[in-house]
């Protein structure tokens, strides 16, 4: 597991998914890998059970959207 210097906690809501949480916190629905790595005990399923406490890593700007061209970051 990757160690993050800074993180937030988030309590999942009904119908939350990994991609929707990634979009909410990172602005990119495809950038959910840090979420999965930071929450290995949470099952990867279509929906995250409501009330689940998640660790949301705070990413450097250089870590976000690495695969996008600069004009889309």
Gist of the model:
This protein is of the alpha+beta class. It has helices spanning 18-26, 33-38; strands at 7-11, 53-57.
Fold and architecture overview:
- This protein is of the alpha+beta class.
- The chain has a single domain (7-72), classed as LysM domain (Membrane-bound Lytic Murein Transglycosylase D, Chain A).
- The chain contains two helices and two strands, in the order E-H-H-E.
- It has helices at 18-26, 33-38; strands at residues 7-11, 53-57.
- A two-stranded antiparallel sheet has the order 1-2.
The ordered string of helix (H) and strand (E) elements is EHHE
Main sheet specs: 2 strands, antiparallel
The neighbouring-strand order within the major sheet is 1-2
What's the shape?
globular
Distance between the termini: 26 Å
Tell me the number of helical segments per DSSP (H or I, 4 or more residues long).
2
What value does the average pLDDT take? 85
Low-pLDDT runs of 5+ residues are none
Number of domains: 1
Number of beta-strand segments: 2
CATH superfamily: LysM domain
Percentage of β-strand residues? 5-15%
Proportion in helices: 10-25%
Quickly give the CATH architecture.
Roll
Radius of gyration: 12 Å
Structural class: alpha+beta
